[in-house]
Write a structure and sequence with these properties.
Layout lengths: L11 H10 L6 E9 L6 E9 L5 H5 L32
Antiparallel strand pairs: 1-2
């Protein structure tokens, strides 16, 4: 299976924030997987969050399924690199 998206390097603090956002481990499990980058074919390790308990009604109330994701998308929430973070508020832009 191929999934198109973005890969980010996060530190321990950012991972804690992501865990909280994804309600890990209550609602989602976090799993480490191997991925192959389409840009150069290199293999990396990444975390993904997987819903612990599937319910069919989630599709009826969810947003439109994305075929791709970019931090430059219409949501207007551009990713902030670690070196550009000057305060905790910067992480939530």
């Amino acid at each position: 299976m191929n999934i198109e998206g973005e890969l980010y390097e996060v530190d321990a603090k950012k991972l804690e924030i992501l865990d909280e956002l994804e309600a890990y481990p209550t609602l989602y499990d976090r799993k480490e997987i191997e991925i192959k980058l389409s840009s150069d074919g290199s293999i990396r390790h990444a975390y993904i969050y997987l819903l612990r308990s599937w319910r069919a009604d989630l599709l009826a109330t969810s947003s439109v399924m994305l075929t791709t994701y970019s931090s430059l998308g219409p949501h207007g929430r551009v990713y902030v690199d670690n070196e550009n973070v000057t305060s905790e508020e910067d992480m939530y832009q």
